[in-house]
Amino acid sequence: MGKLSVESLESGMELAEDVCGSTGMVLLGSGAVISDRHIGIFKSWGVTQVDIKEAEKEAINAEKMAHLTDAERHAIDIELDRLFQHNDPFDPVIEELRRVCLRRETERAASLL
To answer: How far apart are CA 34 and CA 40, in angstroms?
Structure first.
């Protein structure tokens, strides 16, 4: 699961948890697929973030990356370059491992904001 701002939601994403309004009323249940109409309802009820299923982790990572400064992004890239300097960057396993590390470091840096 991962939290994503309502502004970053897209139709077709699947909820990992119930979305509740300010009064605690369930607006949309866990497992539901989000539509444009739902996004409008969330905004009108003052919902700012929702939990979405694992399949949307890349969107979450992109949103978190957008909140990092250029210097923070550069520092992460330098560290990953150092860690992977003795590996073939075109090896599919190494590419995936680097992507996972990038997500982890981005989440770590974003949580410190």
So the answer is: 10
Q: What are phi and psi of 108, to 5 degrees?
A: -65, -45
In-domain check, residue 60: no
Same domain flag for 50 and 6: yes
Q: At residue 84, does pLDDT exceed 90? A: yes
Our count of domains for the chain comes to 2
Residues 6, 29: one domain? yes
* DSSP helix/strand/coil, 52: strand
Q: Which residues contact 46 (CB under 8 A, 6 or more apart)?
A: 21, 22
Q: From the centroid of its chain, how far is CA 55?
A: 10
Same domain, 77 and 44: no
pTM of the model: 0.50
- 3-state DSSP percent of the chain in helix, strand and coil, to 5: 55, 15, 35
Q: What percent of the chain has pLDDT over 90?
A: 41
